[in-house]
Amino acid sequence: MMIAKYAKKKETRMIANIMNNFYNNNIHNNCYNNNNNKYKIMMRYISKKISRRKILNHPKEVVFKTVADVDQYDQFLPYCTKSELVENSMIINDDNNNNNNNNNNLTFEADLSFAHSQISETIRHKIVTIENESVVSTAAETGFWNSLVYDWKFSQLPDNKTEVEVKLDVDIKGLPYAIAFDMLSDTVLQKVFDAFVSRVHGYDFINTTEDEKRQQQQEKEIKF
């Protein structure tokens, strides 16, 4: 029994020391004491923010639609194995301050399944769209994070170009997940962002009819 108590105290000190090394992170502190009330351990949500920005040679409507069509994510998004809209979850946002006369601003839910390395999980997301302006996707709480939000913004530029920016804001549960996030996040987010960009570039071809596709292919062969 004494050995077990000593091991527990040693483990407590070790965890506290490791956590102190992360003190300079953006951290929300939530403290509790152990049974002996001698050691205070800081249990923290570690906040991380990442963003990507790019100018695309496509109109804003096309870029917005690619991101807003959540049920198509499993067709092109890395690590996404299934994407389904939640039945009867869609509502039209009644925003009197919106300058868009045709109010197609929506709020809906979707279940997205992801698989990467040894991790596989289905996560419910709440998506809020402002037509041709923004898409905000908020994931439900999981064992890995307290909150995770993707915030997409679209800005029309001259010559029918669009500036697209995505910001990822996540509150991670515990140091092991924060370390894993630091190791993988840049690569994973870049792959996801590149997948959306590639999807936008292929949008015209994806949305043509079969006859139009055959005609495009024939024109390519004639040019060759």
Describe this entry's structure for a reader:
- The chain is 33% helix and 39% strand.
- It is an alpha+beta fold.
- It has a single domain (2-207), classed as 2-Layer Sandwich (Alpha-D-Glucose-1,6-Bisphosphate, Chain A, domain 4).
- Strands 1, 2, 3, 4, 5, 6, 7, 8 and 9 form a nine-stranded antiparallel beta sheet that branches.
- Strand 1 (26-33) and strand 2 (40-56) form a beta hairpin.
- Helix 2 (60-68) packs across helix 3.
- The radius of gyration is 23 Å and the shape is globular.
- The chain starts with a helix and ends with a helix.
- Residues 1-8, 10-43, 206-210 and 219-224 have low confidence and may be disordered.
Any idea of the CATH class? Alpha Beta
- Radius of gyration, Cα only, in angstroms? 23 Å
Overall pLDDT level: 77
SS class: alpha+beta
Number of H/I helices: 5
Low-pLDDT residue spans: 1-8, 10-43, 206-210, 219-224
Shape: globular
CATH homology-level superfamily = START domain
Strand content: 35-45%
CATH fold field value:
Alpha-D-Glucose-1,6-Bisphosphate, Chain A, domain 4
Tally of distinct domains: 1
Count the beta strands.
Answer: 9
Question: How many angstroms does the end-to-end distance come to?
Answer: 81 Å
Order of helices and strands: HEEHEEEEEEEHHH
Helix share, percent: 25-40%
How is the main sheet built? 9 strands, antiparallel
- Based on the structure given, which CATH architecture is correct? 2-Layer Sandwich
